[in-house]
């Protein structure tokens, strides 16, 4: 299964240590408005192996916007993250999971290879299951950068482990063309 973490408002230094020490593969969908006060925090996670991907400039409800505005929301952070983190995002997560046809066109025109959704949402380390009480291989978990997230995340890792699964790197499970190095 795959762990994705969205937005980026909270920046807990202990979380970077946990990710580094436990070598947890993560995909981060970052909103520029949430991270611009401390881009360096995410450099730490990047160095620990996390992928930095696109979650728009200001976290709008994209279907309300014109194609041109959607394109701006998606392209601008990709350019900024390419400069800051050395790799241009190729995955988009739309705020609220809300997309329309213009979103998909804008994402493609900004160089995105896929728009990623999720299956389970994790709140305070607890998984809201879609069906039953188990994760399934291949599930995508949605977590947010939150206060106390290190302890919550350790609880989440225990739950995943108890179910006989482990977080995998999404890079190794999408076709090669989905990523540029
Ligand atoms: Zn979000």
TrEMBL record:
InterPro entries in the record: Glyco_hydro/deAcase_b/a-brl, NODB_dom, Polysacc_deacetylase_ArnD
Q: Name one GO biological process term.
A: carbohydrate metabolic process
Report domain NodB homology positions.
1-181
Q: Which domain of life is it from?
A: Bacteria
Which Pfam families does the UniProt entry name for this protein? Answer: Polysacc_deac_1 (PF01522)
Q: Name one GO molecular function term.
A: hydrolase activity, acting on carbon-nitrogen (but not peptide) bonds
Q: Which PANTHER family match?
A: GLYCOSYL TRANSFERASE-RELATED, SECRETED PROTEIN
**What protein name applies here?**
NodB homology domain-containing protein
Organism annotation: Actinoallomurus iriomotensis
């Amino acid at each position: 299964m795959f762990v994705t973490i969205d937005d980026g408002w909270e920046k807990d230094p202990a979380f970077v240590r946990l990710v580094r020490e436990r070598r947890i593969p993560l995909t981060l969908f970052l909103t520029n408005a949430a991270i611009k006060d401390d881009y360096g925090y995410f450099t730490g996670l990047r160095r620990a192996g996390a992928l930095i991907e696109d979650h728009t400039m200001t976290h709008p409800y994209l279907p309300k916007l014109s194609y041109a505005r959607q394109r701006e929301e998606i392209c601008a952070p990709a350019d900024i993250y390419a400069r800051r983190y050395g790799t241009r995002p190729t995955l988009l997560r739309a705020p609220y999971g809300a997309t329309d046809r213009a979103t998909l066109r804008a994402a493609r025109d900004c160089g995105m290879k896929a728009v990623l959704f999720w299956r389970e949402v994790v709140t305070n380390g607890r998984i809201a299951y879609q069906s039953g009480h188990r994760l399934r291989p291949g599930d995508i978990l949605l977590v947010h950068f939150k206060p106390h997230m290190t302890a919550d995340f350790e609880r989440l890792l225990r739950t995943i482990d108890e179910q006989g699964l482990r977080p995998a790197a999404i890079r190794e499970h999408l076709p090669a063309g989905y990523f540029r190095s």
